[in-house]
Amino acid sequence: MGASPRPIKITEVVLRDAHQSLLATRMRTEDMLPIAEKLDQVGFFSLEMWGGATFDSCIRFLNEDPWDRLRKLKQKIPNTPFQMLLRGQNCVGYRHYADDVVERFVKHSADEGMDIFRIFDALNDFRNIETAVNTVKKCNKTVEGTISYTVSPVHNIELYIQMAKQLEDMGSDILCIKDMAGLLTPKATFDLISEIKKNTKLPIHLHTHSTTGLAGMNIQSAIDAGVDMVDTAISSMSMGTSHYPTESLVAALQGTAYDTGLDLNLLEEISDYFEEVRKNYTEFESDFKGVDINILKSQIPGGMISNMENQLREQNALDKMDEVLEEVPRVRKDMGYPPLVTPTSQIVGSQATLNVLTGERYKIITKETRGCVLGKYGKLPGPLNEELLAKVTEDDKVIDCRPADLLEPEWKTVTTELGNDHTSEDDRLTYAMFPKVALTFFQTRNQPRAPKPAPASKAPAQAAVATQAPPAAAQAHAMYNVKVNGRDYHVEVGPAGSASVAQAPAVQAAPQPAPSAVAAPPATGPAKEVVTSPLPGSVFSMKVKVGDSVNSGDTLVVLESMKMESEVKSHTSGVIQSISVNEGDKINTGDELLTIG
After folding, report:
1. Backbone angles phi, psi at 109, to 5 degrees
2. H-helix or E-strand containing 283?
3. 177 in Cβ contact with 149 (< 8 Å)
C-alpha cells in the first residue's frame, strides 16, 4: 500500500462545481445563504464556492454580482476556508489577460475573502500560471498548483511526474490532480498518486467526477496511495456529471484510520436542504444523470456537458448532441490533444458543434480555435492536423513564447473606458473579464428580477406564437419569436400600461433598426449578395456599415455562439447595401445579416 493512514480531508463543492456540472451553473446566492452557517459547522477542509463558470454565469444569466456573492457567503461562513478555481492567465474568463489585470484580480479576490486558489492552465503550460501563483504567494494565501489530467497518446505518468515537480518548484503549497472529465481508473489513480508521492513532498488533493461511474473506486485507490484531500458533493447534488457523495465517503471511512470526523447527521440536514433547492432549477438539469462510459471517448468534463446541452437546446439543436460528442475527440486530435477543461473544453466543444451544425468540418473556425492553434493559449501537447494548421496560418504564424508576453498592460484601458461611471475595483475587474456582458449587467443589476412570463395572449389573425426566447436577466417584458404569414418576427410582450407598451397592442412588432441598419438606396450595379448567418447565436459586433466598400475576405460581422466568437467574411467585393441586424441581436442559422451590391 501507499503512505501511512491518516484522516482524509474533504473539500465540499456544492456551491460551485456541483451545480456547474448538474445545473449549468445557475444556482443563485439566495439559495446558498440559508444553509451557509450549517456548512460552516461541518469542519470541511475547504468550501469551493467561486471561480470556474460562476463568475460569468452570475453576470450573464443571474443578474448577480459575483463579488457580492463572495462577501455575503464570507459573512455567513467565517471559519471554513474558501476555495476558488482560477484559470491562471485566463483568471475566470476565456482569454489571456495582461499581467496587471491578473495581479489585480488575484489580490482583490484575496482581499474579499478567498483563501485557497486552485490554479491551473488548460494546456498544462505552467508559464501561464506563474503570475497568478506569484501574486497569491505575495498575498499570503494558499497556492494549489494543478495538473489537468487527460488521456492521450502524448500523455503518460512520466510527464505527470515532471509536471508535479515543476509545480513544487514554483512554490505550490498543495498539488491538485484535476480529473475534470472522470477519466481516471482505479489503477491509473493509484499509480499516479503513488509515483507523485515518491517524487514530491506536496500534499495531494484529488478532484474527480462521477460521469463514468468510477469515482468511488478511484477515491479508494487514491486513499490507498496516500492522497491527503478529496473533493466531494453533498449527496443531493452528487453523481451524474457531478462528484462522489460526501456522506458516502464519510460513512465508508468511519471507524478507520482515515476517519474524516465529520457529522453525518449534520450532512444529512444539508443534503435535505439542497434536495429542495435543486427543484428550483429543473429546467437546467442535464439529461446525463446516470453513468456514461462513452465519456471515456469524448472526454468532455462534467461542467461542460450540462452547459453544452443547455446551449444546444437554446439553439434548437439538441438532436445533434450525439454527433457533437462524436466530433469532439476528432477535433481534439486535430488540435494536438489538449486536455478538455475551460477554456479548451469550450474551444474544442464549440468548434465540434460548428462542424456539425454547418455540415462541414472547419467551414467556420472560431476566433478561439484559431488562437489556440496559433499558440496564443500556450503550447499544445501534441502535433497539429496539417490541414487545420494550413487554414489557420494563412496570415499568421504560430508563436512559441508565453502568450501574455505579447500583451500590453490593460488596466489603464479598463479605467479609461469605464470613466467615472464605474470606479469600484469590483466593477472594473468584472468589466476587464467580460466587457460587453458587464456593461449589460451594470444596467440591470439594480432592477428586480422579473418573474417567468405568463403565456402570451393571442396575436392578430394569422399569427402563431412559437418558442419563447430566454428573457434577459431582470427584463420586464418577454421576447417571443412569432411567425406571421410564414415570416419570423421578434416581438415584445409586456404588461398593459407599462412604459414601452402603453396604449399599444399587447403584441408589438420589434422596434425599427438603428440608423446603421437602414437600407441604402437600391444598387444599380450587379445583383445583391445576401450574407446569412452560418450558425445560431448572437451578433457580437458589426465591422461594417451601410455604404462601406468591402473586398473578398474582409470580416463583416463577428458572431458569438456558446461564448466563442466566429467571424463572417465576405465572399465578394462590393458596397454594403443594407444591414438587417444590430449588435446584441439573437440570430438563427440562415438569418439574413446584410447585403452586398
Report:
1. -60, -45
2. none
3. yes
pLDDT at 246: 98
Query: Within its chain, how far is the Cα of 367 from the centroid?
Result: 16
Mark out the alpha helices in 263-366 (DSSP H runs): 264-278, 295-298, 302-314, 321-334, 344-358
pTM: 0.79
**What nine digits make up the cell of 537?**
447565436
Q: Are 152 and 338 in contact (CB under 8 A)?
A: no
Of 450, 455, 579, the C-alpha closest to 512 is 579
AA identity, residue 529:
E
147 - beta bridge partners?
177
Rg of the chain's alpha carbons, rounded to an integer?
25
Q: Is 362 exposed, middle or buried (0-12, 13-18, 19+ CB in 10 A)?
A: middle
Full strand arrangement of the beta sheet holding 555-561: 564-569, 555-561, 537-542, 586-587
Gap between the Cα atoms of 103 and 100, Å rounded: 5
| Strands ordered across the beta sheet of 478-484 | 463-468, 478-484, 487-493, 507-509
- Number of Cβ within 10 Å of residue 268's Cβ equals 14
pLDDT tens-digit profile of 522-561?
A: 444 456 889 988 777 788 889 999 999 988 888 899 887 7
Q: What angle do CA 222, 226, 232 make, to 5 degrees?
A: 45
Contact criterion met (CB below 8 Å) for 130 and 172: no
